[in-house]
Amino acid sequence: MTEGVGLDMDAAPGEVDEWDPEGIVPWIVFLAGPGARRITGEVFVVHGNTVKRMESWRPLAQIRREVHWDQESLGAAVAELGAGSDTMRIGDFLELRDRLA
Amino acid sequence: MTLSGKVAIVTGAGQGIGRAEARALARAGAHVVVNDVGRAADDPSVRTADRVVAEIRAEGGSAEANHSDITSWDGGRELVEQSLARSGALDILVCNAGIVRDRTLSKMDLKEWDDVIRVHLHGHFVPMRFAATHWRERARATGAPVDATVIATSSEAGLWGTFGQANYSAAKAGIIALTQVAAREFAAYGVTANAICPARVPR
């Protein structure tokens, strides 16, 4: 484990310890074994008894024009990209900005 | 046992997840090369890798220690060469070594950045590089695919970015890209490469 990560995250009594390395190692042994010979180039998030296969980067939306963009046309089209619509991130940003104000 | 006859290297295996990985691989039948530069917090005269080797042997498993600094070119080469010299093979490479030096970007200095990038990215790249050289030569010599695998250790910090962890998040994102390149290149020898992100769910 990365030194210092998770050291203050012990599970409360009766809860599953999501950082318990013993929850991760069965997946490591599987990946190292014959059952995983066709698995490659993948990213797995492993916590507790949960294994998630992650999807690689892919475009969510795109805008395109036959000629170079100008500021006016970009301003009109940018909504099609949905940029800034991630409410979690923009919410975090606004909260931190308000805290500094 | 699943991994009987296999030889595994686990870097950063002196404690935490690396230690658990090394012990689990040994329980599954692999001979494990336990790599760590660290010393025990409760007794600095004891090297953590030696302690894990003793634990594995006490459980009836097979292991040997390696204390090389795998962020250096020579250290990574020595680790792979030790595995090949004493065990005759290398079938499983688990790259796990890592550190954190958390600080917000406005306060982080270059040493904090460099240390984290070096341990994670050099620490993954160098052993992987020398293992790849061995696997390529083995595939060419035998004319057959090599049955070997790399397991890299990333983090959700490398997927989303984590507040106060610019260095760690960048390093972990780099490990994912490194692993994907390894998967593409190593396919020519039959070797697989995947990354795991140990994580926790919020309560």
From TrEMBL, chain A:
Q: What is this protein called?
A: Uncharacterized protein
TrEMBL record, chain B:
Q: Which Pfam families match?
A: adh_short
Ketoreductase domain mapped to chain residues: 6-199
Question: What are the protein's GO molecular function terms?
Answer: oxidoreductase activity
InterPro entries, from UniProt? Answer: KR_dom (IPR057326), NAD(P)-bd_dom_sf (IPR036291), Peroxisomal_Beta-Oxidation (IPR051687), Sc_DH/Rdtase_CS (IPR020904), SDR_fam (IPR002347)
Methyltransferase as a keyword of this entry, yes or no, is: no
| Keyword terms | Oxidoreductase
Q: Report the sequence similarity comment from the record.
A: Belongs to the short-chain dehydrogenases/reductases (SDR) family.
Q: What is this protein called?
A: Ketoreductase domain-containing protein
Organism of this sequence: Phytohabitans suffuscus
